[in-house]
Amino acid sequence: MRCFFLFLVAYSVVVSVLSAAEAKPAEPKVLFEDTFEGKLADGWSWLREDANTWRIRDGALEIRVEPGVAATVKNVLRRQAPDPSLGKVAVEVTVTFTTKPTNQYEQAGITWYHQDKPVFKLVHENIDGKTYIIPGRKPTETLAVDLRLVLDKEKYLAQYRPAGQGDFQTAAEGKLPRGQNDMVSIQCYNGPANAEHWIRFDNFRILQLEP
To answer: What's this model's pTM, rounded to 2 decimal places?
Structure first.
């Protein structure tokens, strides 16, 4: 009887462990990561680089927010976007305004390039004196936010959270054209011409969420 009881206990423990393992989602696979320690990682390229207005400092990439719009923005740092055949993936980066933004539409974040044209952005943006996540126009209260663009074939989720705090919230979702030669960038623009405002970019990652 005692042996049978011990068997039941052991069986229950095994079942509990297996159930917990099945319930726990698989850890995402890191396809690329840049922590900006001393230099840029391999694979980046600049579009309209101005070497005087970007720097790596204290484990982050800092870019001065200069005047410009989507088609003329300086210091666009781009790399090959994740292959659509990889399944569900995410692009993440932490964006920090080191100075409170003052210009209308002053912004920083992730931009998607399709057929070499900027077709989508997930940014932290100043509008009428307040900051928002665009798309979705979700108001923010912090100068530092984590941005997360989740891609599943042509579907996207634009997500955000205060840097390092809580779960990601979805600001918007929709469809995004994707191709083999797409690129993803981190960039900032619509800055003031007569003041130095710098954006910090930290912890850039591309993750495979599901095969």
So the answer is: 0.87
Domain 27-210 fold is: Jelly Rolls (2.60.120)
32, burial (CB in 10 Å: exposed 0-12, middle 13-18, buried 19+): middle
> Which 3 state secondary structure label does DSSP give 151?
strand
CA distance 210 to 86: 8
Please give the radius of gyration of the chain, using alpha carbons only, rounded to the nearest integer: 21
Name 99's Cβ contacts closer than 8 Å, sequence gap at least 6: 195, 196, 197, 198
Other CB atoms within 10 Å distance of the CB of residue 19: 10
The total of other beta-carbon atoms located within 10 Å of residue 68's CB is 17
Count CA within 13 A, CB hemisphere, residue 127: 12
Mode of pairing for the β-strands spanning 107-114 and 88-97 = unpaired
pLDDT tens, 62-104? 999 999 999 999 999 999 999 998 999 999 999 999 999 999 9
Residue spans per domain, the chain: 27-210
Per-residue pLDDT of 142-153, as tens digits, reads 999 999 999 999
Q: Cα(70)–Cα(73) distance, rounded to whole angstroms?
A: 6
Report how far apart, in Å, the C-alpha atoms of 79 and of each of 30, 171, 187, 189 are.
Answer: 15, 24, 12, 19
What is the spatial distance between Cα 145 and Cα 132, in angstroms, rounded to a whole number?
Answer: 10
- Write the pLDDT tens digit of every residue in 153-167: 999 999 999 999 999
Count Cβ atoms below 10 Å from residue 133 Cβ, excluding itself: 24
